[in-house]
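Our platform keeps sequence and structure together, in a single record for each protein. This encoding replaces a full spatial description with a residue-level series of whole-number codes. We quote a single record here, exactly as it is kept in our systems:
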Amino acid sequence: MSETAHAGGMARVRATFRGVVEGRSAGELALWLLIGLLGVGLTVYTLYHARFQTLVRTRHSNVFLGVGLALFYLYETQKHLYGTEDVTAYRERDPTPEGSALSGLRSVGRFDWLLTLVSAVVTLLAAAYVETNFDRLLEDAVVVGYTQMDHLVGLVIVALVVDATRRAYGWAITSVVLAAIAYALVGPWLPGFLGHTGMDLTDVARYGAIGLSGTYGFILGVGTTWVAVFIMFAGLAQAYGALDYVLDVGEEAGSRLKTGVVQMAVVSSMAMGSITGSAAANTATTGSFTIPMMQRQGVRDDFAAAIESVASSGGQMMPPVMGVAAFLMADLLGISYVDVLQAALIPAILFYFSVGVAVQFAVLRYGWTTERTGSFDPRVLLKGVHFAVPLAVLVVTLVYYRLTPLSAGLYTTLVMVPTVFVRDLAVEGASLGTLWGTLVDTVAGLRDGALDMAPLVGVLAAMGIIIEMLTQTGLANKVSFRMVGLAGGVFVAVLLMAMVLSIVFGLGMPTPAAYILVVILVAPGIIEVGVPELVAHLFVFYFAMLSAITPPVAVAVAVGARIADADFLRTGKQAMRLGAAGFFIPFAFVTNESLIIWSFPATPIHAAVVAIGVVALVAATIGYDGANTLGGAPRLAYLALAVGALYAPMLMVQAGCALLVVLALGLAQQGRLPAVATSTRER
């Protein structure tokens, strides 16, 4: 290494330390360092557990819960005391936009920072109590009973989980948790089918936490393993510039398209939305970039907000993460994670295909096009070609070797880190400064991954409490039974009622919470009328996700409208038009299960026919078919075509396709005969 490179590297090291220390008090610096150590330590521990799995899942969940919630509360304390939303002091980052998941982390009192600091300490103490008494709680306490201290610690854990959920995601999901606990307590005084024998506070403590159920149920178990490793991988990838790369490629492609940056907004929101686990958070994150870009292109404010809202909501349905619901679905159904990805792939592609077509038609109809400035510059793609290496490892480990998501995430992360180091050394030159810069990004990514995961810890634990309360009281089975009864057992009526309930239960919820609620309360009802389990889960999941763009709540629309400074109701109307196909596709895969459960030739044939129906539906809702603005009669004709293509029985679809093939062959044969005859006469 040359002396110049060495001097430059040392200068970069000194600049980094100055950026960390300057302007910070001793207390702020100590808190900042503590958060960093806990964040990096939690990510490293997660990767260690993924490799060796020395602890059983429940015990691992307890360790993760203690450290994760403590990290969450410490980060909250930092923001209360010092008013910063920066994840790192040495890397510039835009403040979290209002309306995102993290924007709920606001002070609710003058001394709330003290409460959050105490909560961090209590969380660690409660987790330590469970850890030191784990064997007794798992085996002996079930037989001989729980002590008063057990019940007290159980109630403290429940209270911490509820409080963390409120701080991270607001009162929407928190009110459901509190309602479930209240329902368990007041059961004997409720009328009709809502009544049950009732529970007391010791039962809430036992089933909610200290009995190693509820909080420690399968949801937190999946969250602290499969979900955590992917969220942490995403944090590391973002620190390495993955999001910037996606946006750069999209902007380059947008500048070369007639529709400009609009389709870039759809693609980038799809890519990021699958990981975030919250349509509102994704709208806030990517929308802070894409919405102003669309507005500068001339796209009307309400349409710009609606495009981002629909694309961000749809990202929750897109494999491989599906807003972390894919992991929960695989564990809940007891099937392979790859099987979930395969089942969800075609509907998700159809949905985004519909959104892409709708956006294209809207831009062309209203004249929001741009002048194309030339051909696409492939050098933009080369800037992020190194990301293909870890992604290839992810695909191979999941699809070919059929490893668990935990192991696949581990190997993908372990491959990405040295790949980025090699890339930086090759591109920026071998120097101490390059090594130091990449190391700083790596540490930042390890920390950011844990900080991104920390808010999810509380809500996943809260979902476990809800499930346990509803299961112990029997409400889940009663709701499904009543739903089928009210619909009279009529198949279509049951599906329509399930759609409405899924939208209602999904309102304002983050993705994992919405999925768990609808799958516990709604899915059993449609399974009872003959819908296969996997299809039923995807059906209710889709409508729970579409609640993010369904007024009157429509949280993703609310966030998008705020960024665009657009009217909420107008934005909601446009979002419903752009995302209309999403409300029809779930009925299509219930009608023809080959979209979910693959078979040949049914799956490719029906997917193609549904795609035609989706285009027809988009033309009807947008009022434009790519060439002409449509009046009432043509729109009705397109709608009729859409319904026929989406819901025609598979036998009719195959018969129609076979007839089209015969006609095509016949026409082709007739077209060849004159040419053959002419050639013969000439000879």
